[in-house]
Structure formats: structure tokens, C-alpha cells
Amino acid sequence: MNAKHLLAAVAALVTLTAHAEVVVKNAWIRGIAPGQSATGAFMELTSATPTALVGVATPAAKVSEIHTMSMDNGVMRMRAIASLPLAAGQTVALKPGGYHVMLLELTAPLHEGATVPLTLTFSDAAGKRTTQTVHATVRPLTGGPMPKH
Questions:
Q1: Is pLDDT above 90 for 114?
Q2: Beta strands of the chain (E only): which ranges?
Q3: CA 49 – CA 140 distance, rounded (Å)
Q4: Span 86-98, mean pLDDT?
Q5: Which of 55, 119, 48 is CA-nearest to residue 86?
Q6: Would you say 86 and 47 are in contact if contact means Cβ atoms under 8 Å apart?
């Protein structure tokens, strides 16, 4: 391999590394009570490059929204946001009481221990969109860890 080909290979590798997927850890969904039609999904997101979470889809819900939660005069308020920025190298936790994904109009009951696919859509600084599917485990309604059998 000559120097020209080697440089081209290195440039291609650097480009692939710059567009690496976001690392998703600890994806879970809060269990539901009978008749409940909405719940939250939570996870940790870390990107090597600046990007943003701009969408979520799942067959488990007709509507999936990225939400933020804040306190307003002692009242907890949730609101949908268009995107959640992910700074390079910093983990963003989607957790109860903060950023999270709302799953609305659930298509079926979510049973503890089940896994649910979540397709996350990210947009990088150049506007290029990528998707990544993760599997979230349904935890007990209290949001705690899965019980040991």
C-alpha cells in the first residue's frame, strides 16, 4: 500500500470514528398500573461528538416524546422538547424527575421483565441523522431494580 492509499484509509477511519454511534446504557421503562396508557423510558446517553437526540419511536406506543421536567412554584411540570443536546464526551442521564422519554397511548400492557425496542434518532452538528435501536427492560412500577427470583 502506498502513502496515498494509506492516507485515504486513515481519513476514512477518522470519518467513521467521528460519526460513531451514541453509547446507550441502562435503558429501562417504568412499569404501568392496569389501565394506564402512558409511562416513561430512561437511559444514559454518551456521544463522542456533539449531537442531539431528536426523536424516539417504539411499537409499544403510538406517541413517543422527549420531555424535560421542572419545578414551578412547587408543582412538577413536564413539557415536550424538540431535541436534547449531547455534548461530546459527557453522559446525559434520562431519569425520573429530569429528562426522559414519554411513551403515550401505549399499544399493549407492559409487563415487568419484558424488553421493548426503542429507536433513537440523533442529529449531528452537520444535521446528519442516524438511528439506533436499543432494548429497554420494563421495571416494576416503582422504578426500582428488577426483583430477583
A1: yes
A2: 23-30, 38-46, 51-57, 61-72, 75-80, 84-86, 91-94, 100-106, 115-124, 129-139
A3: 34
A4: 95
A5: 48
A6: yes
SS3 for 64? strand
Judged against a pLDDT cut of 60, whether residue 77 lies above it is answered with yes
Pairing of strands 129-139, 115-124: antiparallel
For residue 85, give the 3-state DSSP assignment: strand
Number of Cβ atoms within 10 Å of the Cβ of 127 = 6
pLDDT of 143: 58
Average pLDDT over residues 30-40: 94
pLDDT over threshold 90, residue 98: yes
What are 122's three cell numbers? Answer: 440523533
